[in-house]
Amino acid sequence: MRENTIQSIWADGGAVLNGWLAIPSSWSAEVLANQGWDSLTVDMQHGLADLSQALSMMQAISTTSTIPLVRVPWNEPGVIMRSLDMGAYGVICPMINSRAECEAFVGACRYHPDGYRSLGPTRARVYAGADYMQHANSTVLTFAMIETSEAVKNIDEIVSVPGLDAIYIGPNDLRLSLMGEGGADNEDPEFMEAIDKVFAACKQRGVRIGFHTASVAYAQKMIDRGAQFVTVMSDSALLAAASSQVVTAFKEGGSAATKGGTLY
Question: Are 138 and 109 in contact (CB under 8 A)?
Answer without folding.
Answer: no
